[in-house]
Design brief:
It is a single chain. By secondary structure, the chain is an alpha/beta fold. The protein is 38% helix and 13% strand. It has one domain: Rossmann fold (3-Layer(aba) Sandwich). It is built from 13 helices and seven strands. A seven-stranded mixed β-sheet has the order 3-2-1-4-5-7-6, sandwiched between helices. Helix 6 packs antiparallel against helix 7. The protein is globular and about 60 Å long. 41% of the residues are buried. The mean pLDDT is 90.
């Protein structure tokens, strides 16, 4: 399926490498895709293997993006509602100004920040979306919430529809790729949801792919305590101490039908949440602690552990080898050249390699 959102760290271009090293030798196994993110790896496994798939991530948006893997649990009526969301994205007929228009859109009326905070811009509001897009997001979410409250759609159908709201919002966001800041644009033509989403989801629905066995929402250590025994655990942890929670908080808000303005931190220029998700990888010290815990607990639950990482990552090969040696684990590495993502036009000629660490007892 076409990419749903722009995302730093997606493994979309590395699937062949992952398949060569990990997946093509395994036809029917129990596997955990930890840090599933945009779910690109899990989707690949669903379409190309008969594995018993388990997924895990800490973010609201990742759980919503996983909805497309559960299409077999949806009724065919879902496609009527998808068409209605496409219509809303094309033309808004009836609307009420809601939280996404007021708090995050051009010419909104934010209540969580003083207008004096916008001295460096002409528009005295946050500018993540145009007015049109903000109004349509509110309308879409109200439509989904009404259906769900009236029990006209189930949990999986609700998530499919929210996934399309995320796709629409991210396609029209006034950002480079993340939500740590917005561009100072005032005029931008709205791009409606593409009918391709309908057609591809319908095709996947008809193919009746096997749903994952489970989705564990939460941090990786809690997940490793809860999951059953696996044949393989695949982890794609953050490479550095970048604060993901401040880069994708708007998407987390979008994915929560119970999101309210009271959850926004007062006077935050980008509308950060009052209560942040704790980032275990947010400091150099914590990264080293969590890596050892992550490896140790994974090997309690699995025969093999594969970790995607980078030569640009916070943890060095020597540090990971030390953890493995200390715990009497066998370590192998596989590498592939890749180009570093940058959110600007600066040329970065630094040679980087994607690393897969294979760890066994």
């Amino acid at each position: 399926m076409k990419k749903v959102i722009r995302y730093i760290g997606s493994k979309e271009k590395l699937l062949d490498f992952l398949d060569e090293v990990i997946f093509n030798k395994n036809k029917k196994i129990k596997i955990l895709d930890g840090f599933t993110g945009t779910t690109v790896v899990s989707k690949y496994l669903q379409e190309n293997t008969d594995n018993d798939l388990y997924m895990s991530d800490i973010s609201n948006y990742s759980e919503i993006l996983s909805a497309r893997l559960y299409l077999e649990k949806c009724n065919e009526d879902i496609f009527f509602h998808i068409r209605n969301l496409i219509k809303i994205s094309e033309k808004l007929e009836n609307y009420n100004e809601g939280v996404f228009f007021n708090e995050f859109s051009i010419n909104g009326n934010p209540t969580t920040i003083n207008s004096s905070s916008f001295e460096n811009q002409d528009i005295k509001s946050r500018m993540f979306f145009t007015s049109d897009v903000g109004l349509k997001i509110d309308c879409m979410r109200n439509y989904i919430k009404d259906l769900h409250n009236k029990k006209k759609i189930n949990y999986y159908e609700k998530n499919i529809l929210l996934m399309l709201v995320v796709a629409f919002a991210d396609k029209n966001a006034n950002t480079t790729s993340v939500y740590g800041a917005y561009l100072k644009k005032q005029n931008r033509k709205t791009i409606p949801l593409n009918i391709d989403f309908f057609n591809i989801l319908k095709k996947e629905y008809d193919l009746k792919y096997k749903s994952p066995k489970g989705y564990f929402k939460g941090d990786i250590i809690d997940t490793l305590d809860k999951i059953p025994e696996m044949d393989i655990i695949y982890l794609d942890p953050p490479y550095n101490t970048r604060k993901y929670e401040s880069n994708y908080h708007i998407l987390n808000y979008l994915c929560d039908l119970n999101f309210e303005v009271s959850q926004i931190k007062k006077d935050s220029k980008t509308g950060l949440p009052k209560k942040n998700i704790e980032n275990m990888f947010g400091t150099k010290k914590n990264t080293r602690v969590i890596f050892e815990d992550m490896i140790y607990k994974s090997m309690e639950k699995s025969k093999e552990l594969f970790i995607s990482y980078s030569t640009d990552g916070e943890m060095t090969f020597e540090e990971i080898k030390y953890i493995c040696d200390k715990n009497n684990l066998v370590l192998n590495t596989y590498t592939k050249d890749y180009k570093k993502y940058t959110s600007n036009n600066n040329n970065n000629n630094k040679e980087l390699k994607e690393i897969i660490y294979r760890i066994r007892k």
